[in-house]
Automatic annotation (TrEMBL), chain A:
UniProt keywords, alphabetically: Actin-binding
Protein name: Cofilin
Subcellular location: Nucleus matrix
Organism for this UniProt entry: Dimargaris cristalligena
GO cellular component: actin cytoskeleton; nuclear matrix
TrEMBL record, chain B:
Recorded coiled-coil stretches: none
Protein family per UniProt: Belongs to the actin family.
The organism's place on the tree of life at top rank: Eukaryota
Region of interest (Disordered), residue spans: 41-95
Name of the protein described by the UniProt record: Actin family
SUPFAM superfamilies hit by this protein: Actin-like ATPase domain
Chain intervals with Polar residues compositional bias: 74-83
Organism field: Dimargaris cristalligena
Length: 140, 491
């Protein structure tokens, strides 16, 4: 079941830039004010550290995000994995949690090439190590 | 935040649960109507009914129909469910006799007021609607008597248990469109709404409420049918066992409040010195429900769950708690206050009254056969009641390997019986033992309102969304494709 919320095309464009052109490191999405579609909240150039991404997530509201995760595989060089985040902190209002949880499918289905999906409710679940472990576990 | 769209009318959200009915307007934070699902019913003659009933019915052509249908429904029930002796006169009644019909008393004060020969019933059995007559009357009561709205003007959003059957859903749609003339309808599953309301499209929802305990996995907003389990060991079952325990250990018959006229102080453990009211012709089901109410209070006041493995000696040294029953009888409750709720975790060991039927996934399971085995868990082919951590673990294990870690780290506890002190700690403790090395995270809605009304609130938010209007089943669609459309549109 889903909420029927739509996805703005700008989201897909931003995702393409991140995936194909590698010009973005992360894109954060949010629901528009009229709660009808998902729009781009912020994005950042490729030279952004992971910590900055985590810092950009609001502590008391929900977001979706994609992050182009780069890591070193010992002896095999660099790898890139795109991770999809559902950020839903415990302190967020229940209305917002509900909206983001029920609309996740809408955006997730439109994004192709996601290697790992992270459902995070606090900063420890979005920590570098946790995400690294998830990203490396997927085989391809 | 309220979102106004041009064509938007506030939807009605109704959640009929095992012990409580919640109803209200979409977009609000708490339901306007919260009444027990236990409904009083008694037989009255048609004249009496029309004279006393306050229900506003559609004045359209069907003004005659409801009564006729009511008669039908009750007649078929009395055939199947072998009415208890107190309903005596009811049995003599010839089937379809036009002179009598059922009158329902809905609402806290209505249903707990003593009336001669008033039965107490609930429309649900294992979460499934078993008595449509009562169910319809509940909707009626919510719309006309309490919310004071015309259902033909507002879309209707209802909730259902995860294991609801397609035919029951179709019946519900028919009720909404044919009887209540709703312009649009949607039905959604409880665990999905609970998961959404705690911000999780994926998670395992353990709902331990009044009449049923269930473990259901939700993935991306859809219920995974695999592994879902439900059994009737929940709040009411615990209360029944407390009743049996009091009888066994203290020879105490619990006297419900309605029978007590006056009580006087007695020492702990001394027989009560209360003046009782004379209440002839009380239906046994009413008396029992009132006893249960007294036990609920007892349960909420003194009962607790051991945070780690149940250890009789360790718990014996914990402080006792005093409790006074409605008739003045009072006692210091020691280790017993841990013993009975322990049934939720070890049903095979702590059940006092073994004559009570235990149902797992709608089928009765035998207790007596298992008591000798000294149940050690896995490997037993015959079905037996499960402890809550086991239900969670089995449900997750039945799902795909890829999904399991997601579910383990998103366990959501909801329902009134999870409010026992120590409950959450215990589930966490036991799961660590069952699934070592797994990252387990248990989530419980923080404030009580969210835990009590979680499902309703989920429905309220979802159906108030402007974008939700494309998901409703409209009356037009229903008329075009029939009731089976619900199984396509509401998944």
């Amino acid at each position: 079941m889903s909420s029927g919320v739509g996805v703005n095309n700008a989201c897909l464009d931003a995702f393409q830039q991140l995936k194909a052109k590698r010009s973005l490191r992360y894109v954060i999405f949010k629901l528009s004010d009229d709660k009808k579609e998902i729009i781009v909240d912020t994005s950042s150039p490729a030279a952004t550290a992971y910590d900055e991404f985590v810092a950009a997530l609001p502590a008391q509201d929900c977001r979706y995000a994609v992050y182009d995760f780069e890591y070193e595989k010992p002896g095999e060089g660099k790898r890139n994995k795109i991770c999809f985040f559902v950020w839903s902190p415990d302190d967020a209002p229940v209305r917002s949690k509900m909206l983001y949880a029920s609309s996740k499918d809408a955006i997730r289905r439109r994004l192709e090439g996601i290697a790992a999906e992270i459902q995070a409710t606090d900063f420890s679940e979005a920590a570098y190590e946790t995400v690294l472990e998830k990203a490396t576990r997927t085989s391809h | 935040m309220v979102i106004y769209c041009g064509d938007e009318v506030s939807a009605l959200v109704v959640d009929v649960g095992g012990s409580w009915i919640r109803a209200g307007y979409a977009g609000e934070d708490t339901p306007k109507v919260v009444v027990p699902s236990w409904v009083g019913s008694s037989e009255v003659t048609e004249d009496e009914a029309s004279a006393t009933t306050k229900t506003i019915r559609n004045s359209k052509a069907d003004s005659q129909d409801p009564d006729v249908e009511m008669g039908d429904a009750t007649a078929s029930q009395s055939g199947s469910s072998s009415k208890d002796a107190a309903g005596g006169q009811g049995d003599v009644r010839v089937k379809n006799e036009p002179g009598t019909c059922r009158k329902y008393y809905i609402g806290d004060t209505q249903a707990s007021t003593w009336r001669p020969n008033m039965d107490i019933k609930t429309p649900l059995e294992d979460g499934l609607v078993a008595d449509w007559d009562i169910y319809e009357n509940i909707w009626n009561y919510c719309f006309y008597n309490r919310l004071r709205v015309q259902p033909e003007e507002n879309p209707l959003f209802v909730t259902e248990v995860a294991w609801n059957t397609p035919s029951l859903r179709e019946k519900m749609v028919e009720l909404a469109f044919e009887k209540f003339n709703c312009p649009a309808f949607y039905v959604s599953k409880d665990p999905v709404l609970t998961a959404f309301a705690s911000g999780k499209p994926t998670g395992l929802v353990l709902d331990c409420g009044g009449t049923t305990t269930s473990a259901v996995a939700v993935f991306d907003g859809y219920v995974l049918k695999k592994g879902q389990t439900y059994q009737n060991i929940a709040g009411d079952f615990i209360s029944e066992q407390i009743l049996a325990q009091l009888k066994q250990d203290y020879q105490k018959e619990v006297v419900p409040r309605y029978r007590v006229a006056q009580k006087s102080a007695v020492g702990p453990g001394e027989p009560a010195k209360a003046v009782l009211r004379d209440r002839p012709n009380t239906a046994p089901s009413f008396d029992h429900r009132m006893q249960m109410q007294a036990i609920h209070e007892y349960k909420e006041t003194v009962c607790q769950i051991s945070e780690t493995t149940f250890d009789l000696d360790a718990l014996k040294v914990r402080p006792q708690k005093p409790y006074e029953f409605p008739d003045g009888y009072n006692l210091q409750v020691g280790v017993q206050r841990y013993q009975i709720p322990e049934i939720l975790f070890q049903p095979d060991k702590f059940i006092v009254d073994k004559t009570r039927e235990v149902r797992l996934n709608g089928k009765a399971v035998s207790l007596s056969a298992n008591t000798g085995v000294n149940g050690t868990g896995s490997g037993n082919a015959t079905a037996k009641p499960l402890g809550i951590p086991r239900m969670i673990y089995d449900c997750i294990s039945a799902c795909d390997t890829d999904v399991r870690p997601h579910l383990f780290s998103n366990i959501i506890l909801t329902g009134g019986s999870t409010l026992f002190p120590g409950f959450v700690d215990r589930v966490n403790y036991e799961l660590q033992g069952l699934a070592p090395g797994q990252r387990i995270k248990i989530q419980t809605p923080g404030n009580t309102a969210e835990r009590k009304f979680g499902t309703w609130l989920g429905g309220s938010i979802l159906s108030s969304l402007g974008s939700f209007h494309q998901l409703w089943i409209s009356k037009q669609e229903y008329q075009d494709s029939g009731a089976s459309i619900v199984n396509k549109k509401c998944q």
